[in-house]
Design brief:
Rossmann fold, alpha/beta
């Protein structure tokens, strides 16, 4: 679905019925120098990366509260929320907003037994990740900052999300879990 059309997206989510677990994993990247950011770029990236997850989580959380049985939400953020990346001003800003959104929801929804966490991966080798980071000249400087020496694979992120959604993480809420091969330790 087109998450830039938030009304259609929330209507679709409402039509799905009871949702006990939510993963907010939509995101786009609009990259370029700060001086070249356009109004429409700001609106588009914040609409997809922040506004859509917020209002989708709102619909799902209302259902969870009404049911009274709790639930779990995991937001897919990025290491870019915690460390600035050149030409990523808009992207980094949306992911930082996602992290604070995660903490705020954890605070507000905790009394309803709803846990809210985020994962913060480094570059993930999805189609978008391969497109942006397959060039060895571009990838090498980033890889040199990752102690494990590689970018994340989809499974690295999926396993972490599954853990945070599971009962094994019953006492974890409001966390940002880096999946970055140690990138943020430096």
């Amino acid at each position: 679905m087109d998450l830039s059309d938030i009304e259609a997206a929330t209507n679709k989510i409402e039509s799905l019925g009871d949702i006990h677990l939510l993963v907010n994993n939509a995101g786009i990247a609009i990259l370029g120098p700060f001086e070249e950011i356009k109004f429409e770029d700001f609106d588009k990236i914040f609409s997809v990366n922040v506004k859509a997850p917020l209002f989708i989580a709102q619909v799902v959380a209302k259902q969870m509260i009404t049911r009274g049985s709790g639930g779990a939400i995991v937001n897919v953020s990025s290491q870019a929320s915690m460390i600035a990346l050149k030409d990523h001003t808009l992207y980094c800003s949306t992911k930082a907003a996602m992290d604070m959104f995660t903490k705020s929801l954890a605070l507000e929804l905790g009394p309803h037994k709803i846990r809210v966490n985020a994962v913060n991966p480094t570059v993930v080798m999805t189609d978008m990740g391969r497109l942006g980071w397959s060039d060895p000249a571009k990838a090498k400087p980033m890889l040199d900052t990752i102690p494990l020496g590689r970018f994340a694979e989809v499974e690295d992120v999926v396993h972490s999300i599954i853990y945070l959604l599971s009962d094994k993480a019953n006492m974890i809420t409001g966390t940002m879990l880096p999946i970055d091969g140690g990138r943020l330790v430096q």
